[in-house]
């Protein structure tokens, strides 16, 4: 027999949120550490990994590169620029649960990679910025799909703090910035939020 207290549901919710927060910190921290380990090895190899596993648009080998290119970076400065937003956005998405996080991450990853593969310019594309844009876009729109006021409020705060990065989805004269990866990641994040929205109940 299970005894319930008047505030039992609230206590359980707080405990669940704490577990998710801990999981988010561990997962995102571990992922970022992995990126730095890879970049350290890549630097020792004079970034030879980029030419092998970086994304090459419109090539058959490039299809497999979709799975690896976000793990590589041009240099440590490139990785540093992605680190903080990746940690913040990833952690905030993880608070909604591992399934939600995994869905948002997967669609951001695939959306970014497929867009670069289809319409990317010449050369090799590397970097986790597509994931950053995907998770950010997911956080911006999910509240409106979920009709959640606190999520909408969070999206407003995030937009005020990081909204300027959205210019990165526009074509730019700076050839070293892959706007295609940014745009594809953002679209992937929006699709994930749409798919994860609460299903409307059918009237009976």
Notes on the protein architecture:
There is one protein chain. The chain has 204 residues and is mostly helical. Helices cover 68% and strands 0% of the residues. Helix 1 (8-44) packs antiparallel against helix 4, helix 5 (98-119) runs antiparallel to helix 8 and helix 6 (129-146) packs antiparallel against helix 7 (149-162). It is globular and about 55 Å long. The two termini are 34 Å apart.
Could you outline the blueprint of secondary structure elements for this entry?
Elements: H1 8-44, H2 48-53, H3 60-65, H4 76-94, H5 98-119, H6 129-146, H7 149-162, H8 179-195
Helix pairs in contact: 1-4, 4-6, 5-6, 5-8, 6-7, 6-8
Summarize the model shown:
The chain has 204 residues and is mostly helical.
